[in-house]
# Entry
Amino acid sequence: MVSKNQLKLIKSLHQKKYRNQYGLFFVEGLKTVNELLTSHFEVEHILLTKAMKERFEKNETLLVSEIDLKKISSLQTPSGILGVFKIPKIKPLDLQDWTLALDSIRDPGNLGTVIRLCDWFGISNLICSPTTVDCYNPKVLQATMGSIARVNIVYQDLEELIVQSELPVFGAFMDGDSVYEKVIPKKGILVMGNEANGISTDLEKIIESKISIPQYGVSTTESLNVATATAILLNEIRRG
# Structure
């Protein structure tokens, strides 16, 4: 059985400061746990309810009651399985393809969806500004559906990255040139901005190509959701 101290530790991992302190994070759901078990992530504990134990035979597991699991879960209805994993060491960036950079994305669901999009479109490196939500936030991880196992995520100052890189840099702006009229290079950096304010003024000054997704028809919609916009732009990038 899982101990009270283990439950207390896992409960603390809801907060970023404790994830950093212990170097651990947790995920929930059979699919996500299995995805991470077959990846480079190193497992610490697997917690299972009795009902889930029959469906899961990998690794050493700890039995947890449904009541205790609900206390530590980030879900309204826990799935019956929770995996605790070690936060991996940062991998060096390999900028030989397109790289996605996020400027102060705050919504966990948006970041999780963007990570899934990187996985889908084969974007290996995702660079986040220090003000972007933590990728090991339970809500982010839930939204990735395991895709975090295949995307290298680095938190770095974006101005420093752009200034030092020799790659072409494209930024998403409401008043940018239509992406459908742009010649898309084979590699570069795509910058997506904050949900409310877009790309910061300081970053805007050093982005060489401003692109946008044209709006059709009569609409009062001010902008697209950042994850939706990212999907459209990555699709255009991969189309070349």
Remarks:
- The chain has ten helices and ten strands.
